[in-house]
Specification:
Layout: H1 2-42, H2 47-61, H3 64-76, H4 82-95, H5 97-104, H6 109-125, H7 131-156, H8 163-175, H9 179-193, H10 196-209, H11 214-227, H12 229-235, H13 241-267, H14 269-279, H15 284-303, H16 307-317, H17 341-371, H18 378-403, H19 408-443, H20 450-476, H21 482-509, H22 517-539, H23 548-553
Helix pairs in contact: 1-2, 1-7, 1-17, 2-4, 3-4, 3-12, 3-13, 4-13, 4-15, 4-16, 5-10, 5-15, 6-7, 9-11, 10-11, 10-15, 11-13, 11-15, 12-13, 13-15, 13-16, 14-15, 17-18, 17-19, 17-20, 18-19, 19-22, 20-21, 20-22, 21-22
Length: 561
């Protein structure tokens, strides 16, 4: 009965510890995810900077698995090259050791008091409506739960209260007292909980309670170094070739690193343990934590000069596909970013900006098609329209998934993105309609009069000016030119009335062919509708629907604008 009670205590503590790790990681990702993404984007060919960013990012979000999944996503989206990703993955191995050092401090009484106070403050902050305050509260609660979980687990391993469980574990580790078997156990345990930080934290706690000897713990920690690669490997399933190569690089760095150091650590384990006991006397938790730090630093130092060779090896093992990989896909967005919602939201914005650029390009191409040989523009317009339709459909699905993962502020932003997607897709449809008009006129050997061409040119120029303003407003979240956007829309509305009236006057005077009437009217009406959609895109930064009236009511723009 005592053993059952001890096991339940141990499982409860482990559950609280893992919940704390998740809560801490989620809070830190929400707070720092956007900054991490910007850091990743600034990485160039400097491998030392890559290691620093990887270590810093992982130390911040307390998860090398999350960092590696994020990197796989960036590579899959084509934002980052393998040469840029490899040093970041190396740095992640250093960053993940910070958790172990934090856990090692749990043996200090003053730390427990400080953490308890932090946890209490964190709980109180979670009841405040301000989202930023809630995020900080979540981080503090996460820290508190980590140490509460460690305390509960240590109670389960208490040799005075539950000597049977302690004896059972000691006998277990005596039975598997073989380095290779211990490494395998470390791999399996870390793969199961999908966090090397959590695994090493648990090993450190067990060492502190005397349930696990330091000599055995060294090899379990080595196994945890390989086991953490499982998350990245899972994330790479169904991804691009380069994304799979990224996960493979993460794996071979870990496997090669453990393989190279396993034999020396195996042979000199007694001397290594003695050295750590001499450096950190009486604190076995800190001894294991610093062993993990030093080991990972050594692995990174050893492999950093060979980044190019590691990348080349991944390219030889995972070869490019000759066919079957031409399916349409996002340029910036990746499913893996859903694990870091703040990063996912930023990537969605970039994807929408790219979609907007394609819609604007198609609009310009369709205008050119009306003046020149229309058929020469067909292939490019059709391809761009296919990408626009794909992006609208698939990004809408992606936003639905993302909407359940973000806070209230970001929910509003997602709402505006839904409307912008719809507006840009409609602009793309109108561009396609203009091209179809150009093709029909070409096939019928019809041509607008010089006066009609000049009038349409003026209206097209006004619409393109609106597109430039709407794009700047959305891309830079800048509302300073929205009044000008509204004024241009009014100008386009006036042009529609004037051009239509002058067109009918030309028809009455016999200066225009009747066959051209539907083409001219459709073009003018289409341009006016494009202007309406562009206003919605620009005003989406002020309210989700792009409503001008709502912007005026809230004072975001002057009432007379």
């Amino acid at each position: 009965m005592k053993i059952l009670e001890a096991i339940l205590t141990l499982l409860a503590g482990c559950g609280v510890f893992l919940a704390g790790m998740n809560m801490l990681g989620d809070g830190l990702e929400r707070s720092a995810g956007g900054g991490l993404k910007r850091l990743f984007e600034k990485i160039s060919g400097n491998r030392f900077a890559g290691v620093g960013v990887g270590a810093g990012a992982t130390a911040i979000i307390q998860s090398s698995s999350a960092t590696s999944v994020m990197v796989v996503g960036f590579v899959n989206a084509g934002i980052m090259s393998l040469m840029q990703a490899t040093p970041i993955l190396m740095g992640a191995k250093i960053g993940t050791t910070i958790t172990g050092v934090i856990v090692a401090f749990s043996s200090l009484k003053i730390v427990k008091i400080v953490i308890a106070a932090m946890a209490f403050v964190g709980v109180m902050m979670c009841f405040i409506k301000n989202e930023r305050v809630k995020q900080i509260g979540t981080i503090l609660c996460g820290f508190g739960l980590i140490f509460v979980g460690l305390d509960v687990m240590s109670m389960g391993f208490d040799p005075d209260k539950y000597p049977e469980l302690t004896a059972m574990f000691l006998k277990l580790f005596e039975t598997i007292d073989f380095p290779l078997l211990l490494v395998v156990c470390g791999i399996a345990f870390t793969a199961l909980i999908q966090s090397s930080s959590a695994a090493t934290g648990i090993f450190i706690m067990m060492v502190g309670t005397g349930t696990l000897g330091l000599e055995n713990a060294l090899f379990l920690a080595l196994g945890a170094n390989i086991g953490t690669c499982v998350t990245a490997l899972i994330a790479s399933i169904g991804a691009s070739v380069n994304a799979r190569r990224t996960a493979f690089i993460h794996l071979i760095i870990s496997v090669f690193g453990v393989s190279l150091f396993l034999a020396p650590i195996w042979i000199f384990k007694s001397q290594i343990v003695t050295a750590f006991e001499w450096c950190l006397p009486g604190n076995t938790q800190m001894q294991l934590a610093w062993f993990y730090v030093i080991f990972n630093c050594c692995v990174v130092a050893l492999f950093l000069p060979f980044v190019k060779q590691i990348v080349n090896l991944s390219e030889k093992v995972i070869k490019d596909k000759t066919n079957g990989e031409n399916e349409r896909q996002f340029k910036y967005v990746d499913e893996r970013f859903l694990k870091t919602p703040s990063v996912a939201l930023m990537q969605v914005k970039k994807e929408i900006e790219y979609m907007g650029a394609l819609a604007e390009k198609n609009l310009k191409l369709s205008f050119s098609a009306m003046e020149e040989n229309a058929s020469s523009y067909k292939a490019e317009i059709v391809e761009n329209e296919a990408v626009i339709d794909f992006t609208n459909k698939e990004l809408t699905k992606y936003l639905i998934k993302l909407s359940s993962l973000v806070d209230t502020h970001d929910e509003r932003k997602i709402g505006s993105y839904f409307h912008v997607l719809n507006d840009l897709e409609r602009v793309g449809d109108h561009a396609e309609n203009f091209f179809e008009i150009a093709m029909q006129m070409q096939d019928g050997e019809l041509c607008f009069s010089d006066n009609a061409k000049r009038e349409l040119k003026d209206m097209q120029t006004a619409v393109l000016d609106m597109f430039a303003i709407a794009r700047t407003a959305f891309d830079e979240t800048d509302s300073r030119q929205l009044a000008e956007l509204t004024a241009l829309e009014n100008t386009v509305d006036g042009m529609k009335r004037d051009l239509t009236a002058r067109h009918y006057a030309r028809l009455a005077e016999g200066n225009c062919k009747v066959e051209l009437s539907p083409y001219f009217s459709s073009t003018v009406a289409g341009l006016e509708r494009v202007a309406d959609h562009l206003v919605n895109v620009g005003f989406s930064i002020l309210n989700p629907t792009g409503s001008q009236s709502e912007a005026r009511e809230t004072g975001a723009i002057p009432a007379e604008a």
